[in-house]
Amino acid sequence: MRSSKLSPRTGIGKPAVLKAAGDLADEIGLENVSIAAIAKKIGVKAPSMYNYLEGLESLRRELSLLGLSVLTERLTGASIGKSGFDLLHSVAEAQKDMTLERPGLYSVSVAANTPGDEELNALWQGPVRIFRAVIQSYGIEGEEGDHATRVLRTSVHGFALVNSIDGFRLGADPDQTFERLVASIHHSLSEWNQVSNRSSVS
């Protein structure tokens, strides 16, 4: 990767470039972010961007790292001092809120698991660990914990994505739908071990 030191000519640094790129991803969609668009947002000429980025592939990776860091920070903050239903609700709400407030960064963080990239994959584990902690607070461990974690993540992720694009067109308040979703997940997790034990016997 290229140096993140300040450029004497432009007076900007790599953190400022990535912040601008992340803001653009949220504003216009990740697929529309380009080196030229970042340069325009910062107010410099496009060639100067190559002091900090090697190209679009490098940019996407950097945004993935940033998105995962932001998501992990939000989920971690939401989880502190909580357990059971309170932990579930707080973490689910934090993920939902990120899809609304940082949609571009969220989208790139979800697809960030890349074989062979140890740094990226280590960060990708951050949100997974927090969701797994939610599951463990319900006493679900082992392979059943894997299944329950997937159910939780996909349920919250699916609702959050549809909600973020204003995809709920029925009359009921989506916020109330979210509360019912979390209550349903809570009920399912509370009975998970009993149901899985019955399934293994039958």
| Total number of beta strands | 0
Shape: elongated
Low-confidence segments: 1-10
Determine the strand fraction and express it as a percent band: under 5%
What is the CATH superfamily label of the largest domain?
Tetracycline Repressor, domain 2
Count of individual domains = 2
Number of helices: 9
Sum up the structure in keywords.
202 residues, mainly alpha, Arc Repressor Mutant, subunit A, Tetracycline Repressor, domain 2, 2 domains, 9 helices, 70% helix, 0% strand, disordered N terminus
How is this structure best described in words?
- The chain folds into two domains: 10-53, Homeodomain-like (Arc Repressor Mutant, subunit A, Orthogonal Bundle), CATH 1.10.10; 60-200, Tetracycline Repressor, domain 2 (Orthogonal Bundle).
- The model is unreliable at 1-10 (pLDDT under 50).
- It is elongated.
- The protein starts with 13 loop residues before the first helix and ends with a helix.
- It has helices at 14-28, 35-42, 56-79, 84-101, 103-110, 118-136, 142-164, 174-190, 192-201.
- The chain contains nine helices and no strands.
List the SSEs and their pairings.
Layout lengths: L13 H15 L6 H8 L13 H24 L4 H18 L1 H8 L7 H19 L5 H23 L9 H17 L1 H10 L1
Helix pairs in contact: 1-2, 3-4, 3-5, 3-6, 4-5, 4-6, 4-7, 4-8, 6-7, 7-8
Summarize the structure.
By secondary structure, this protein is mainly α. The protein has helices at residues 14-28, 35-42, 56-79, 84-101, 103-110, 118-136, 142-164, 174-190, 192-201.
